[in-house]
Amino acid sequence: MKEITFKDKIRQGINDLFYIWLREFRTTFRDQGVLIFFVLVPLVYPLIYGFIYTNEVVREVPAVAVDASHSSLSREYLRKVDATPDINIVTYCADMEEARQMLKDRLAYGIIYIPSEFSRDIAQGKQTQVSIYCDMSGLLYYKSMLLANTAVSLDMNRDIKIERAGNTTARQDEITGYPIEYEDIALFNPTNGFAAFLIPAVLILLIQQTLLLGIGLSAGTARENNRFKDLVPINRHYNGTLRIVMGKGLSYFMVYSLVSVYVLCVVPRIFSLNQIGHPGTLALFLIPYLSACIFFAMTASIAIRNRETCMLLFVFTSVPLLFISGISWPGASIPAFWKYFSYIFPSTFGINGFVRINNMGGTLSEVSFEYKALWLQAGFYFLTTCFVYRRQILMSRKHVIEQYKKVHDRMN
Q1: DSSP3 helix / strand / coil % (the chain, rounded to 5)
Q2: Of 243, 289, 285, whose CA–CA distance to 385 is shortest?
Q3: DSSP one-letter code for 264
């Protein structure tokens, strides 16, 4: 037989790579399950999240008032609380027992209680208090109740101090009301909104999870369609580890390059979320992130034996991965074991890096830890993917040889 030259091997390898790429690309758009995870879920899921949290903050929280003072000053306090955008006083109760019952019936989420001595204490120069009770099953209700009552109490405190000071000029009144002037500036989240805080992390995690599910489903389908339940088919184009890994990886990378533009650029613009990162910086950051996610998913797909297995193995991990990423819960408060465990997943570095670039205007040098970690993950998972597929090639050959021997023995 004619010996194949090194140049011919390179040419054959490149041809096989593009054959595998084209076949995987066609499989992606012919398999309805893979198409759902690769296209439909990234298209629809971010929109659902965005519409749920489109208001950013909780407004007009239903509350009830118990006014035991029945004075003009207590009524003024309640009017000002009701006038804030955070609280809506739905009714005035005669006593605390009636107010508690409304909380139990979920007709209100907070109680504002003004004691009977409220106006008398202020008139006598004594310190008084207003009590607020909040349904702590929802922390955002507590936030609205506390902010509204704090703002009103500070405003009325200023008026009372000015009235008692006996000043003669407006400037003296201003200094009396605010001896120390302060300014509250919310950095990187001007609206203090929940969507601007949570959705960027969810979008990055969505890319990893849909890749896991889509590639896992594709691997399960390949095993089900294979006579010997192997991941790699017996085909002359699949006679090499690098061509298989690079061919499949290139197909997934091309699909998710477009998906990522929609998920990370178009969706935040639709819902007017904070976007101050440089597009070039974001593109350079996404290259190692997508590569790490793809090779991580290809390595993990070795555990998939049928189409349904990926749903059982990967779907439930979404919420834990969001928690241990250090976004929904402060990273400094995460136990050391879970912090280091989170380094296994590309989403940990992807979420933190993306938020710092997109929401805080960071550069690659400012996210160098996450950027380098993603390149290390991409390299490591590329090697593990090569190892996995090399082993699958050998197993496929072994099964075919065993089957050939059985048939040969029966014929003899």
Answers
A1: 70, 5, 25
A2: 243
A3: I
Residue 132 C-alpha from the chain's centroid: 33
Spell out the alpha helix ranges (H) of 85-126: 96-104, 118-123
What φ, ψ does residue 132 adopt, rounded to 5°? Answer: -120, 140
Count of Cβ atoms closer than 10 Å to residue 342 Cβ: 21
Answer for the pair 263, 206: CB distance below 8 angstroms, yes or no: yes
CA dist 116 → 71, 113, 156, 201, 227 (Å): 9, 10, 18, 48, 83
Q: Which helix (H) or strand (E) holds 132?
A: strand 131-134
Residue holding tokens 């993990």?
A: 300
Poorest-confidence range of 173-177, 250-254, 264-268, 276-280? 173-177
Residue of 340, 264, 260, 251 whose CA lies nearest to 298: 251
Measure CA 271 to chain center.
Answer: 15
Please give the Cα distance from 40 to 42 (Å, whole number): 6
Query: What does pTM read for this prediction?
Result: 0.85
Find where tokens 């659902």 sit: 48
With CA atoms as reference, report the closest residue to 219 among 312, 317, 299, 315: 299
The DSSP line for 18-77 is HHHHHHHHHHHHH-HHHHIIIIIHHHHHHHHHHHHTTT-S--SEEEEEEESS-SHHHHHH
| β-strands 61-67, 110-114 pairing | parallel
| Cα–Cα distance measured from residue 367 to residue 369, given in angstroms and rounded to the nearest whole number | 6
* Start-end of H helices in 129-278: 139-165, 170-177, 194-225, 241-261, 267-270
- Cα dihedral: 52, 198, 284, 19 (round 10): -50
Q: Is 227 helix (H, G, I), strand (E, B) or coil?
A: coil
Q: What's the residue count for the chain? A: 412
Read off the tokens for 287: 């290259």
pLDDT digits 0-9 by tens, 19-75: 999 999 988 888 898 999 999 999 999 999 888 887 778 889 999 999 999 999 999
Cα distance between residue 118 and residue 128, in whole Å: 6
* Nearest partner of 177 among 197, 198, 155, 151, judged by Cα: 155
